[in-house]
Specification:
mainly alpha, disordered C terminus, 81 residues
């Protein structure tokens, strides 16, 4: 039985984390628009800050995946319910 190394596991996990992160960003953007239309205040700005942070995290995860010799091609996203 061949046990996967940590690097092999990360090559599988990182694309999932990247896509999961991207789905959160899309939801944040959607709800930022809703809150901007329904309220005033700083909530939309704070959601924008969260989007920026998530985008930065996504870039870092992609760079980590590239460093480990992996890529996003061929990754099949599945939904969590």
């Amino acid at each position: 039985m061949n046990e996967k190394t940590g690097v092999e596991k990360l090559r599988i996990l990182l694309p999932h984390w990247i896509e999961h992160n991207n789905s959160h960003i899309a939801e944040f953007v959607k709800w930022r628009q809703v809150v901007a239309e329904e309220t005033g205040g700083k909530a939309p700005e704070k959601i924008d800050e969260a989007v920026t942070a998530m985008e930065k995290a996504g870039r870092a995860l992609k760079e980590a995946l590239e460093e480990l010799g992996g890529g996003l091609e061929g990754h099949h996203h599945h939904k969590h319910n």
